[in-house]
C-alpha cells in the first residue's frame, strides 16, 4: 500500500509561465506546493513555449505600466537567483497613424507615466532605421526600456528555482477532476492529491477545467501562426545589432496589430506575426490550418520590411486565450475562496508573469494583493458574481 499523499498548502494546476511563477512565489514563502502539468515537460502545446517574447512598459492603460515597473524588478531578481540572462534590452518601436486612437493613447500614457521614450520624425526614422519603411502619416516612437524576454529559458529557470525551494513538480499528469471544499481534492490518472488551496493556471484549457466547477468565462482560444522571415542580408535585423522589437498599429493591410522581434533564435530569420488568429480547440490545435493571416503578413512585410524575403521561412504554432476586453482574469472562484484563477492572458501575459505569480500567491493567502486587481475581476463578465476585493 502506498503511503497517503500529504495535504499540500497549495496545488497549482498548469505549469506554463503563470502557474510556474505562482508556484515559485508559494514555495519562496514556505508554502508546501505541488505543481501539476498534463504534458511531459518541456512541451510546445500551450502558450509559453518558444524562445522569445516582448517585454515593454509601453501600455495605454496605467495599471499595466505600473505592474510592469515591478515586473522588471522581479525579472532582474529571477535572473540573479537563476544565474541566467532572461531579458535583453533592444527597445520597442511603435508605429501607427499619428492621428489614430491607439497610437495617441499609447504615447499619452507613456508621457503621463514619465517612461523613457524617443519620438522619431520621418527624417530621424529613415536615418536610424533605414531597413524599415515608415508609412506616410504614421508616427514612430521607441520605448527604450523594452526588449526581448527569453521565454523557454525563463520557464525552465522558474521551474528549477521552484524545485530548489522545495516545490514538487509532477508532469505528465492531467487533472481530470477537482472537488472543491475546505480541503480541495484533485484527481489525475496517476493519483489523488489534496491541498488547502488551489491555483488554476491552465492557459487555453481554462474553459475545460473551470466549467465542471461551475465557472464559465467568455474565453476564446486562437491559434497563432508564428512566422519567421529570412533576411536578404543575414544579420540586418539582428538582436546583435540591437534591432528593436516592433508593434505596428492600424496598418493598411490589417485590422489587428502586427508585431515583430529581431532575428535571434534562428539566425538570419526575423519573427513577424499577426496579433490574432483563428479559433481552435486546444486539443486539436494542428487541425486549425487557416493561413489567411500569413497572406496579410506577406503584404505588410513586402511593403514595410524591404530587407526580408516576403514569404515565411518557418511557421510555428502558439495559442492565445482571449477575453472580451483583452484584460487578464486574476481572481478567486466566485463560490470557492480557496480556489484562485489566473487566465485569459490575451496574448500579452508573459512579461507580467512574475507579478501575476506574486498576486496569485497573495490571493491564496487571503492577503490584500499588491496591485489593484479590479480590471481583472471575474465579476466584470458576471455582474452578480463575487470578486477578489
Ligand atoms: C505567438 C505568441 C506571442 C506572444 N507574445 C507575447 C509577447 O511578446 N509578450 C508577452 O508578454 N506575452 C506574449 N504572449 C503571451 C504569453 O506567452 C502568454 O500570455 C503566456 O505564455 C500564458 O501562460 P499560461 O501559463 O497562462 O498558459 P500556458 O503556457 O498554456 O500554460 C498552461 C499549462 O496548463 C497545462 N494544463 C492545461 N490543462 C491542464 C490539466 N487539466 N491538468 C494539468 N495541466 C494542464 C497546459 O498543458 C499548460 O502547460 C504571446 C503568446 C503567443 C502564443
Ligand atoms: O505582449 C506583447 O508585448 C506583444 C505585443 C504584440 C502582440 C503580441 N504580444
Automatic annotation (TrEMBL):
The keyword Oxidoreductase applies. Coiled coil: none annotated. Keywords: FAD, Flavoprotein, Oxidoreductase. The keyword Nucleus does not apply. Its cofactor is FAD. Residues 9-362 form the FAD dependent oxidoreductase domain. InterPro entries: FAD-dep_OxRdtase (IPR006076), FAD/NAD-bd_sf (IPR036188), MTOX (IPR045170). It holds the Pfam family DAO. Belongs to the MSOX/MTOX family. GO terms for biological process: L-lysine catabolic process to acetyl-CoA via L-pipecolate. GO terms for molecular function: flavin adenine dinucleotide binding; L-pipecolate oxidase activity; sarcosine oxidase activity. One of its GO terms (cellular component) is peroxisome. This is Peroxisomal sarcosine oxidase. It comes from the Eukaryota. It comes from Denticeps clupeoides (denticle herring). Metabolizes sarcosine, L-pipecolic acid and L-proline. It catalyses: sarcosine + O2 + H2O = formaldehyde + glycine + H2O2; L-pipecolate + O2 = L-1-piperideine-6-carboxylate + H2O2 + H(+). Its EC number is 1.5.3.1, 1.5.3.7.
Amino acid at each position: 500500500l502506498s503511503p497517503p499523499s500529504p495535504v499540500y498548502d497549495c496545488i497549482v494546476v498548469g505549469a506554463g509561465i503563470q502557474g510556474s511563477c505562482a508556484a515559485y512565489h508559494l514555495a519562496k514563502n514556505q508554502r508546501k506546493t505541488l505543481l501539476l502539468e498534463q504534458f511531459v515537460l518541456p512541451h510546445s502545446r500551450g502558450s509559453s513555449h518558444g524562445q522569445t517574447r516582448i517585454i515593454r512598459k509601453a501600455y495605454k492603460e496605467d495599471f499595466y505600466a505600473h505592474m510592469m515597473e515591478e515586473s522588471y524588478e522581479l525579472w532582474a531578481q529571477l535572473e540573479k537567483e537563476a544565474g541566467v540572462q532572461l531579458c535583453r534590452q533592444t527597445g520597442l518601436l511603435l508605429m501607427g497613424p499619428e492621428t489614430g486612437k491607439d497610437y495617441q493613447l499609447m504615447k499619452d500614457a507613456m508621457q503621463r507615466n514619465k517612461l523613457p521614450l524617443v519620438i522619431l520624425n520621418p527624417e530621424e526614422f529613415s536615418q536610424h532605421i533605414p531597413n524599415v519603411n515608415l508609412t506616410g502619416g504614421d508616427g514612430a516612437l521607441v520605448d527604450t526600456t523594452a526588449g526581448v524576454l527569453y521565454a523557454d529559458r525563463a520557464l525552465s529557470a522558474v521551474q528549477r528555482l521552484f524545485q530548489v525551494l522545495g516545490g514538487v513538480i509532477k508532469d505528465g499528469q492531467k487533472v481530470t477532476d477537482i472537488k472543491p471544499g475546505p480541503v480541495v481534492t484533485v484527481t489525475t490518472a496517476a493519483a489523488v492529491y489534496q491541498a488547502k488551496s488551489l491555483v488554476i493556471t491552465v492557459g487555453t484549457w481554462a474553459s475545460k477545467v473551470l466549467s465542471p466547477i461551475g465557472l464559465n468565462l467568455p474565453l476564446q482560444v486562437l491559434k497563432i501562426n508564428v512566422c519567421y522571415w529570412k533576411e536578404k542580408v543575414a544579420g540586418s535585423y539582428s538582436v546583435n545589432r540591437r534591432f528593436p522589437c516592433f508593434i505596428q498599429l492600424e496598418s493598411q493591410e490589417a485590422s489587428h496589430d502586427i508585431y515583430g522581434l529581431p532575428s535571434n533564435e534562428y539566425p538570419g530569420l526575423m519573427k513577424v506575426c499577426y496579433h490574432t488568429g483563428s479559433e481552435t480547440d486546444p486539443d486539436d490545435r494542428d487541425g486549425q490550418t487557416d493561413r489567411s493571416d500569413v497572406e496579410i503578413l506577406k503584404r505588410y512585410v513586402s511593403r514595410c520590411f524591404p530587407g526580408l524575403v516576403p514569404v515565411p521561412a518557418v511557421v510555428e504554432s502558439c495559442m492565445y486565450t482571449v477575453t472580451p476586453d483583452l484584460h487578464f482574469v486574476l481572481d478567486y472562484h466566485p463560490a470557492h475562496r480557496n480556489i484562485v484563477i489566473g487566465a485569459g492572458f490575451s496574448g500579452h501575459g508573459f512579461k507580467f508573469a512574475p507579478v501575476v505569480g506574486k498576486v496569485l500567491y497573495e490571493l491564496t493567502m487571503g492577503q490584500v494583493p499588491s496591485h489593484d486587481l479590479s480590471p481583472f475581476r471575474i465579476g466584470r463578465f458576471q455582474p452578480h458574481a463575487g470578486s477578489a476585493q
